[in-house]
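Ticket closed. Logging final result for FAD dependent oxidoreductase domain-containing protein.
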Amino acid sequence: METKLISSSPLTKTKLRHFLSPYSKPLIATSIRCSLSTPNMSKPPGTGDDRRLKVVVCGGGVIGVCTAYFLAKNGASVTVVEQSSVACAASGKAGGFLALDWCDGGPLSSLARTSFNLHRSLSDELDGPSSYGYRPLDTLSVAIDESHSKPSSNVKNLPSWVDGPAQKSKPIGTAQTTAQVHPQLFTRCLMTNAVEKYGAEVVIGRVDEVGFDEKDEGRVDSVVLNDGRVLYADSVVLALGPWSSKLALVSSLFRVYGLKAHSIVLEPKEPDLISPHALFLTYYPAHGGRPMDPEVYPRPTGEVYICGMSSTEEVPDDPEQVTPNPESIKILKQVAGNVSTHLKEGEAQVTAEQACFLPSTDDGVPVIGELPGMKGCFVATGHSCWGILNGPATGAALAELVIAGKTSIADLSPFSPARFVLKSKR
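Final structure:
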């Protein structure tokens, strides 16, 4: 099948590289044809030869792409609208950590368990280990104290490459309960498969507003882009992450704000010495003060990803405008060198210094479902640090809801947008 990528401007080599995977084997074997023609969604629903349910998914992050994948796989005609490039924001800069039971005891418990298992199924289906770095791994809680010059010799459960001033370590996850993916490659792999196997399309453009047919009891009928293009649809899914609140119809119901998180990616000189252990640190700075909680994820690509240093900041209009704070990056580099001599300056090359915004809600619970009083208009946002984990189950359940009007794979009632309307009436 010939892949179609619709863009408002010619697809440059840079944009093409953004869409293709840089991993060990190519994810797209066929050539991508860049078309400047109007996508098939430009015709009103119910016209033309294609009688399939037409859905516009706004947002090319993991939540939007997972939703598009399952919609397209189940027969819908899907167009994904993305302002910049697929997985350009948090979905391309996250850690990719997966946990079976870390959300137990809260509203995310069932969704997370379902999604963890669905990640495994998708890996079997899409050759996850070689396509996007899926692998089970052990996970440790490790305490690091900068004020100690040498590592303690009696610390148990510590991988040999963690040779900094560790004070204690304990297992908090096994290969049965924790795993990882390379999040950017995972998201782009699903998008590629949705395009190549199931005929989905990608439109590069910014969502300006959602249109409704007042003659049909206010049912959604289109998405309008900022350049004037109109994409007609039977249903619309808003999966815009922290940019959700940029749309008035969302911000009028609930708030989605961005938690800015920083990360660096390192390439150690001897990557084979870095075993697959995810580290959740309690990190004590030498100057005292509150401990920090950075996270360290070795990847099967040979890279090591380190994240932390979060703060609440205003989300810019364009994802490409997100830049890291130099002081936060400096601290993460310092953390890297104190975790392992293999990760210190001179022994590892820093290949990325980055930041992203995690979409968060006031009650700390994602928002997934049909917007009250807006038939056919669905939202999926607010997953915070668990977006990569919960992407598959969110996408699969939302696809069911859009197509069939009900869900079987996961109960979405705890995440209903209606909870904000009910709260405002009290």
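The chain has ten helices and 21 strands. No further action required.
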